[in-house]
Amino acid sequence: MRDMMFFDANCQVGLPMNGGAATATIPALLAEMDRNGVDRALVRHINIDPDGAVVTNEELAVMLANEDPAARLCGVWCILPEQCHELPPPDEFFAAMKRQRIGALTLSPGAHRWVPSRLCIGKLMDAAAERRVPVILPNYSSRWSDLYQFMADFPRNTCILANTGRWGADRAIRPLLEHYEHFHVELSTYWVPEGIKDLAELYGPERLLYGSGFPELNHGSTMLSIRHANIADAWSRLIAGGNLARLLEGAQLS
């Protein structure tokens, strides 16, 4: 079915630093996208946790420049606390993002040993909010209280929760959707019967995003869920790719 543009909000690329079966080169990702009918993808480096933000940000930019000639992929850079000066000031950082085809931010405070609070990243997050740069939140499915505090600190930021957890997260994510208008949910591990339909009706289809979880998971699973969600075609198209495209196009990196 080629009646929808699918834009994947949750992919990782790279050779795992600590081993593991999930290996994703950019050519392998693009081939899998072609096999499943996925048009574009937002990608993070698979080694952000063990290898650190600075190194993986640089490596991802090189990978995208050298291995994605059709520019179907958009990168995600990881942020760190401002006080250690490992990243440039916000104006320089966002200008570099634009040059390197990076469209969103992420963070991994547990692995990188810092507290995701306004004290640590307030200036950078405020600059991201002003520029409407999306922030991917990938590691919160077992730490809901931390996520609630993060959203309370940064209610103006466009945030996308990736990996909701596979055993039902509605009681955790629905209050966030209700109270924070810029909070979005990526659906790769949202496996709730009739759940997509219910969330779309309650909070709007604009808040939901197609994602695969590649390479741990495959592209087709969430595609099937969206196609059979029993919602209007226009809503399906938004969730499949329209929402993410709108969020990334709305960012003002310069």
How is this structure best described in words?
The protein is α/β, with parallel strands linked by helices and 254 residues long. It has a single domain, classed as TIM Barrel. It has eleven helices and eight strands. It has helices spanning 26-36, 48-51, 53-67, 90-99, 109-112, 118-131, 144-153, 170-179, 195-203, 220-227, 233-249; strands at residues 7-13, 40-45, 73-78, 102-106, 135-137, 159-161, 183-186, 208-209. Strands 1-2-3-4-5-6-7-8 form an eight-stranded parallel β-sheet. Strand 1, helix 1 (26-36) and strand 2 (40-45) form a beta-alpha-beta unit. It is globular and about 50 Å long.
Q: Any low-confidence stretches, pLDDT <50, length ≥5?
A: none
Overall pLDDT confidence? 93
Protein structure class: alpha/beta
Query: What do we call the CATH homologous superfamily?
Result: Metal-dependent hydrolases
Task: Identify the CATH architecture.
Answer: Alpha-Beta Barrel
Spell the H/E element sequence. EHEHHEHEHHEHEHEHEHH
Anisotropy-based shape: globular
Protein name: Amidohydrolase-related domain-containing protein
Domain Amidohydrolase-related: 88-248
Organism: Oligosphaera ethanolica
GO molecular function: hydrolase activity
Reconstruct the topology from this structure.
Layout (H helix, E strand, L loop, with lengths): L6 E7 L12 H11 L3 E6 L2 H4 L1 H15 L5 E6 L11 H10 L2 E5 L2 H4 L5 H14 L3 E3 L6 H10 L5 E3 L8 H10 L3 E4 L8 H9 L4 E2 L10 H8 L5 H17 L5
Parallel strand pairs: 1-2, 2-3, 3-4, 4-5, 5-6, 6-7, 7-8
